[in-house]
Amino acid sequence: MKALFSILLFLTISHWSTAQVRQLSPGQSPGKGSITDFNWLVGYWSGTGLGGECEEVWMPAVDGHMIGTFRFWENGKLVFSEFMNLVEDGESVSMKLKHFGSDLVGWEEKEEWTIFELIELGDKKAYLNGMTIERKGDQLIFQVNISEGGEPQVETFTYTKKSL
Q: What's this model's pTM, rounded to 2 decimal places?
């Protein structure tokens, strides 16, 4: 009985942690939203993720675009950075991003982006296809599905709002 309880508890916790990051079902239309629904992201954020230190900066929206940058470093060495663009797409919003190594060589091909489509918006919370972003006071939490070796894992980035 104790072993069965342990297995059920593990399965419940596993389901809860992966349910925090949603995926669009095949044929499912993106959720509705506007770039102004993401105004709570604006600012300079510093924290941890991927076993190292991270920073993000989000600028106010202009012309249906909200631009952000990200950098990740370990042991004082830049590992990679990202250029992010939250963009209005009809009645929805998508996050398009490109990764760059420390030498500024892009990971994606020139015409390709990693894209996260909107699924649902809440109060200072956004579910994107493969990513959840939530603001709690001066904390910003990103949960992202990352596949390593074909096995998806949820990676959490936890930031605190800072002054520039």
A: 0.83
